[in-house]
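Sequence only, no structure available. Ideas?
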Amino acid sequence: MRNFILMMMLLAAVACTDNNNRTDNNDDMEAYRCLEEANVLNEKEEHDSARTVLARGLGYENAADSTKGMLNAEMSAACSLSGDMDEALKYGRKAMALCRDNVELYVILCGNTGIAYRRLGMNDSAATCYKEGVEVAQRSGYDEGLAYLYNNLAVLYYEMERYDEGVEYSLKAKTCAKKADDEVEYLSAMANEGIGYAKKDDNRRAAELLKAVFGKAESMESTPLKLKVINYLLSACRKLGDDTSVDFYLAKGEQIAREVPATSIAVAGIMESKMNTLLERGNYRAALSTAEELEAIKQFQSMPPYKLLMVKARCHAGLGSHEEAYRLECEAVAMQDSVRNGEVEKQLSEYSVRFKTQEKELEISRLQQEKSTERARMLAIVAALTVVTAVLIIVLLWARLRRKARQQQMEIDMARKYIDGMETERARLARELHDGACNDLLALGMDMRSGNTGMDELVKRVQTMRTSLRRISHELMPPSFVYASIDEIAADYLTHLVKPDNMNIDYSLKGESWGNIPDKVSYQLYRIMQEAVSNIIRHSSCTHAEVAMTCDGTHISLSVTDNGNGGNVNEINGKGISSMRDRANSIGAQFEWTSGCAGTCIKVCF
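Reply:
I predicted one. Tokens follow.
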């Protein structure tokens, strides 16, 4: 019943959507008005009135085929809800022929028409109808429709006493319903699963599932769902010997029957439950009476006629009327659908194989799609990683270029400082030559012209000038490290150094492998020592100084100390300390300078 209502809702939705496009066809407009009116009547369960209105709508011959298809579908639903399965089947087949373009409606029609076939005992036709609906639903991905059809297939296989396959389809219906988020269809599949267990005599499992479905149906106020399970729930409870539950759920069923309209198919369902309960309890006379009541309201019958005849035969047999029981059983067997013969059994098996093949094909298609999606995702990840890698490479190259540029700038700055130091040194030497040797020569020349100075004095002054010029030239001359190491050149310099008579300079060495020191390092250390000693002689006024060098093969240190009067920072900058620091920086050495009243100390470590 739930899907008959769903079909009516679909029809109403289509009618509302398309009604604005039918202003050019009066017959079509009138037919649509009938469709809308009948939909409302069916919702109110006034099915006879709905059928009258729909018959009038079908009388408009110029209505569009799509409109006629929906009118026939609505008529099929009204007939089914009235229990008139012959008419429901006739109008359902017409609707299917006219509504092929509306996938959702067509799938529901396949299910509803299949139900009509099944209730008329035409199970082979029902299977064909379900199969067609499954194929359409699978192609379109209509999971809710698939759940509905799988539920109907489960019921059909139960009718064929193929319970394992019925349970299998009920589980498929649960999967599709869960995917579609359809709670009612999910509960219907759960009910079918429980019914399958009941038919397989797994009564404890059946009772557990069906009680859960019934309870949920009560909370949802779903009468069709309660009616769907109550027969089998009662049967399972009876077989478990749970009479308390039997009486409880039978009372529930009779209460539901009193609440629904007397013309509802639900009444027949309740009567069927009551009949089965009475039959199981051995109350054959009451069961037979209920069966005859069901037979009298044939248009509302919920079970195939041959099954009702089989129940009556059992009742007569239980009452001792064996001849009548035999007659009824023969009539029931003759009425059964050809589905019992081997050919139809084989056909149903082929349908099962086709369903499974289609499902496998769909699963393969889904896996291929997932694989394509995964491949696209991996390509996207690879592309992203490539971009990130490229950006990182660019950043690293840029950082390297920046570092190289900074290094080059630092080297330029150091070279500039070195050059500035050299220029300062040259300026100092120029001043010494100008203020010292040049002025002394000028004075000497003037004294020689005047003749007032004695020869001894002139010789002494020439000797002083010679010493001064020799010291300056020694400072300017670069040392050669081809034939001597830093320790030997430093010793030679200090040995021939001209210094005041009251000044003593000691020289000490510690370590070996002086020849392993690079020439560039040796040269700069020599110039630093030369500058430091020169500053001591010119500015410190000390009486004692010491030059010490230490070498351990790869590292060398130089220290120059004196006991002079020290100096301040301004004096240091003017005495070549900045030049000594730049020379130390040019070879990556550490330079330290300390000065105070106790003297000055310069240390260089490389």
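The longest strand covers residues 504-511.
Hope that gets you unstuck.
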